[in-house]
Amino acid sequence: MMTTQYARAIEQVQFNLVDPGYTATDMSPEGTQTLMEGTDAIVAAAQAGPGVTGTFTDRFGVVPW
Question: What is the helix (H) or strand (E) element at residue 27, kind and residue range?
Fold first, then answer.
């Protein structure tokens, strides 16, 4: 919810929250997805066009608040 509050308060900046999911890394080798799968949501958020703000996404798309 802080993401939406910041997005409303500071209109000149885009605020978006990303959940990369349970990704297998050195710190969590038992993760259920690969590193490439874990970056899907992060890359998509970084490529979001102007005006996309206050969203919460995972690798499958926007997650409803």
Answer: none
Angle, CA of 65, 2 and 4, to the nearest 5°:
60
Q: Where are the domains of the chain?
A: 31-65
Say if CB 15 and CB 6 are below 8 A apart: yes
CB 56, CB 3: distance < 8 Å: yes
Return the structure tokens found at 39: 């970056």
Instruction: Give the pLDDT confidence of 31-58 residue by residue, as tens digits.
Output: 999 999 999 999 999 999 898 999 999 9
With b meaning 16 or more CB within 10 Å and e meaning fewer, what string describes 34-51?
A: eeebbebbeebbeeeeee
State the pTM of this model.
0.76
Q: Which of 10, 64, 25, 20 is nearest to 45 (CA)?
A: 20
